# Entry
Amino acid sequence: MSHITEGSTPRVTAPHIRSRKGGQPIVAVTAHDYPTARLVDEAGLDLILVGDSLAQTVLGYESTLPVTLDEMIAHTRAVRRAVRRALVVGDMPFGSYHESSLQAVESAIRFIKEGGADAVKLEGGSLRVPAVRAIVEAEVPVMGHIGLTPQSVLRMGGYRVQGKTIDAARELIEDSVALERAGVFSIVLEGIPAEISRIITERVSVPTIGIGAGLDCDGQILVFNDLVGLTFGHTAKFVRQYLDLKQEIAGALKKFSDDVSTRRFPADAESYHLPQGIELDLVEEHSLEMPPLGPVN
Ligand code: KIV
# Structure
């Protein structure tokens, strides 16, 4: 993988992602905390999105709408502390850029200054062009996101594949061109037919990163919890689950519970001991019985 080198630490930058158009596919995933981000970064993935999917995967909300800017920034900061190489993109939550371009710029700058993000992402097409332009003019790289945009769930009336009529497909293509002109360095295409993604990917000069958008995008992104099987409830058709982590964790917890209940945990090797002399003195002083050896059933 190529990247810009700063001193001894190679860091992926927004211009680097931009330059990957039509080249080696960009590999991206969400991460919401330090351990996850560390694993993702050490695995050499290109881009980490601190997605507002945090609302559902970590905070237990039904949609992404309730998560706040402060919560997003706190999680972005945790991810930043873990990441040495990948590009860290902070996802602007619902309500943090919808009021005005000024509000959008202020929120984006908080992601950079407080969260340590390298870039921000926001949802929406032509309607969001003024906000995108203002953020880019404030020197913050912006990633676009069109198609099934979860922050529009109330308007859409549910999570449905978008662009299925000729007018809706044309609108998505226009949105992608409008975002490109506004200065985004890449565009997430979510939940749209592969045929539209192909047209958009050919049409715009910035990389497209797909999630439920077919094979022809310039990169792919999945939500980490989906990828490792750590979700509850419905999983979208486009998710490929590489691991059943929920099952693994449930198994480990059951074993721990059994070990504690049957006094098989902790073992002697997992315990600390007093030096011999002190132990004997203490036992004498308190006329204690020496503890039994081994597990008690
Ligand atoms: O919040 C998120 O995880 C996202 C991805 C689905 C692209 O926006």
User: Anything to note?
Assistant: The mean pLDDT is 94. DSSP finds twelve helices and ten strands in the chain. Residues 283 and 289 are 7 Å apart (CA to CA). Strands lie at 4-6, 9-11, 26-30, 47-50, 87-91, 119-121, 142-147, 186-190, 208-211, 219-222.
